[in-house]
Amino acid sequence: MRFDFLNEMRRQILTVMLLLVCGGSMLTAQTKETPYTAPKDTVDEPLVVFRDRLIMDIYHTFWMNMPTEVAHMKFDPGFTVSAIWDFKIKNKPIAIGLGVGVTYNTQYSNALLQYDQESGNMKYYVLPEDTKYNLLKMNYLNVNVPLEFRYRHPNGFKFTVGVRGGYIAEISQKYKGDDPANPADTLRYKNLNFQNKMKYNIDVYTRIGWKFVDVYYCFQPTPLFADSKGPKITPMSIGFSLSIF
After folding, report:
1. Is residue 139, in this structure, part of any structural domain at all?
2. Do both 16 and 135 map to the same domain?
3. What distance in Å separates the CA atoms of residue 126 and residue 186, rounded to the nearest whole number?
């Protein structure tokens, strides 16, 4: 009986040892990583708070190629409002912007811009020095499609280079003052009859700034009027930009 008892004890010990070995193998198999369960290395992109989706440019316009006899005011304000879709390149500090916008320029001067019937051209007519007037302003409005290349540094520095193709919606002039033909009378009118104006325009511009504020520069190489059909005036603007969101 003692022999049977010892044999029984050996079988139980061997069974327990076999269970321990099998259990250890299963635990090792469960904790071992496989190519399908191994975590992948990931790089979190920094959050860009100011994506420049809605931008307002506020500026002063310098009118190039103005006739020397025409005097214009020192400050000709204007603005551009653009809604832009920001296409960010993954894990890169660069992006492409595409959208729609409206540009408005002004020109205050001492000359009426009118159509000359004999020559068929638009011309400036300087007012006599003794003519009193409260307002003489030209408005220039176009609707455009901006395309931008954008760079953003993680510290907030950014710059943009862009080009806009636009449709010239309006060129007009407002006048309030003495009637040049009869100084005793008062004349108020808005001239919308601007012949020979170009239908389309091109703007080239840049912005350089930090976070939501930029310095803005823009130049329009295309004139407002057809070649030899009006003054070869073109706007050049300098100001600042605000990225609303």
Report:
1. yes
2. no
3. 18
Condensed to tens digits (0 to 9), the pLDDT of residues 129-175 reads 889 999 999 999 999 999 999 999 989 999 999 999 999 999 999 99
The amino acid present at 82, given as its one-letter code, is S
Q: Show the domain range for 21.
A: 1-40
Q: Are the C-beta atoms of 200 and 163 separated by less than 8 Å?
A: no
CATH at 145: 2.40.160
Count: domains in the chain: 2
> Cα separation of 231 and 219, whole Å?
17
Output the pLDDT for position 51.
81
CA atoms within 13 A on the CB side of 227: 2
Cβ neighbours, 10 Å, residue 118: 5
Tokens for 153? 């540094």
Q: Is 139 found in the same domain as 21?
A: no
Residue 175 located in a structural domain: yes
3-state secondary structure of 113: strand
Measured at the alpha carbon of residue 220, what is the angle toward residues 240 and 86, in degrees to the nearest 5?
Answer: 55
Is residue 133 in some structural domain?
yes
- Cα R_g (the chain), whole angstroms: 36
Beta strands in the chain (DSSP E): 54-64, 77-88, 94-108, 111-116, 121-126, 133-152, 157-179, 182-191, 200-210, 213-219, 234-243
DSSP character at residue 180: T
Same structural domain, 67 and 185: yes
In DSSP terms, 142 is beta-bridged to 103, 168
pTM of this prediction? 0.78
Q: Do 20 and 79 reside in the same domain of the chain? A: no
Phi, psi of 221 (to 5 degrees): -75, -20
